[in-house]
Amino acid sequence: MLQTINRPDSPVSIIGAGIAGAWQALLFAQAGHAVTLHERGDEAMTDATSHWAGGMLAPYCEAEIAEPIISRLGLRSLDLWRRELPDTPFNGSLVVAHPRERNDFERFARMTEDHRRLDAAGLGALEPSLEGRFRDALFFPAEGHVEPRRVLPKLHERIRAAGGTIKFCSDVTPSELDGIVIDCRGISARDEHPQLRGVKGEMILIETDEVQLARPVRLIHPRWPLYVIPREHGLFMLGATSIETEDTGVSVRSALELLGAAYTVHPAFGEARILEFGSGLRPAFPDNLPRIGIRGGRISVNGLYRHGFLIAPALAELTLAYVERGQIDNEVMQCA
Ligand SMILES: Cc1cc2nc3c(=O)[nH]c(=O)nc-3n(C[C@H](O)[C@H](O)[C@H](O)COP(=O)(O)OP(=O)(O)OC[C@H]3O[C@@H](n4cnc5c(N)ncnc54)[C@H](O)[C@@H]3O)c2cc1C
């Protein structure tokens, strides 16, 4: 028997101010709930997986390997990003390939939708820095990207503006809080979800003014989707590996592959300065799908895996619809 929450005046405590918790706090605060967001770390958010992410909002590209539910949540989330942060860049994204990955490039084109094929001239017109670099490319015009280290503080600011309270350096557990509790602790929620695992993603931050890009560029790679994402002030993020380990070091092999991918996209990256190596653990359930777990007034939102930025807004909207109207989404929610 399903238990719904019919206590609109209950305080709402959200644990974890990463991308999942930040979107929950924002939508609940905007809906008039008394929200407190607890974050164990400080405002720099370096303990959050979200700090290390690429921030691509790419439901069409991800459809190559992800389940349809990710596309559904991702497409809805694009609307929510546009609504809440209208300055989010939606310049699309590009997919290119080395000639030896030609078959994989064609497979990628077959497995995905909403793209246009550009020839070399079309690619050069869109991204002048890539003129003459590739024979052709796939352009996904509806995709966007955010810079996690800028967008998390922006979301936190919006939560406060909507009347919510954020407590940094506040290490709490769901059982010690009253009212409605939404647990968004990511990989740290293993006390409640022993089946959660961390999937390491490594990244490198580099700086150069020799290359200008307006959108993420993915390079087809036999093992991982590697990409170069432009940030402000000549910075580029190179990402990301996907390794079944919870060791958070960056290996020489991964660094070579990430730097090699950038060099393939443009040789001028060879002269770029390396600013940072880093990695984060993507919180994943065994099926790699996100889950909203419901046990009375205790809700957990976890397993965002490699799609946190892409799907967090839609997950927050579903949680709010459950709390306010008892609405259940059978694909994502599990009720105890
Ligand atoms: C290299 C890399 C690249 C990625 N690129 C993308 C991408 O391009 N697009 C995309 O959509 N996704 C991407 N991801 C995936 C994305 O980063 C994750 O899905 C997402 O960050 C998970 O968010 P979360 O809020 O669940 O967890 P987290 O970001 O880890 O947040 C959990 C928070 O809870 C806090 N916390 C834990 N325990 C407590 C406690 N007891 N009390 C209070 N606070 C607590 C933690 O300090 C942390 O801040 C990438 C991931 C990596 C590693």
UniProtKB/TrEMBL annotation:
Keywords: FAD, Flavoprotein, Oxidoreductase
Domain named FAD dependent oxidoreductase: residues: 12-319
Source organism of this protein record: Bradyrhizobium agreste
TM annotation in the entry: none
Cofactor: FAD
InterPro entries: DAO (IPR023209), FAD-dep_OxRdtase (IPR006076), FAD/NAD-bd_sf (IPR036188)
One family name in Pfam for this protein: DAO
Family: Belongs to the DAMOX/DASOX family.
PANTHER family membership: D-AMINO ACID OXIDASE, D-ASPARTATE OXIDASE
E.C. no: 1.4.3.3
Reactions this protein catalyses: a D-alpha-amino acid + O2 + H2O = a 2-oxocarboxylate + H2O2 + NH4(+)
Protein name: D-amino-acid oxidase
